[in-house]
Amino acid sequence: MAISLSVVLLLAIILVVLIRGGNIKAGPAIVAILFGFFLASTGMAPSISRFLNSIAESINSIRF
Questions:
Q1: pLDDT attached to residue 4
Q2: What residue ranges are annotated as transmembrane (predicted)?
Q3: Residue 56 · residue 6 · CB < 8 Å
Q4: Where do the structural domains in the chain lie, given as residue ranges?
Q5: What gap in Å lies between CA 7 and CA 2, rounded to an integer?
Q6: Could you give the C-alpha distances from 59 to 5, 9, 10, 54, in angstroms and in order?
Q7: What is the 3-state secondary structure (H, E, C) of the chain?
Q8: What is the pTM of this model?
Q9: What's the pLDDT score for residue 3?
Q10: Please, are residues 5 and 54 in contact by the beta-carbon 8 Å criterion?
């Protein structure tokens, strides 16, 4: 849950920066948000979640 919330917050911040910077207009941003919303209710959502969790675990396991 914490990873999902962090990813959502990070993506929201990136989206706001892109809109304010003029790199993406409001229309395409709304389409991207709706796409993500409807994608979350499909059967692909668990696979996407597992993929993102594995990436987060891989990054977390890197030792410097």
A1: 60
A2: 31-53
A3: no
A4: 5-62
A5: 9
A6: 17, 18, 16, 9
A7: CHHHHHHHHHHHHHHHHHHHHCCCCHHHHHHHHHHHHHHCCCCCHHHHHHHHHHHHHHHHCCCC
A8: 0.59
A9: 60
A10: no
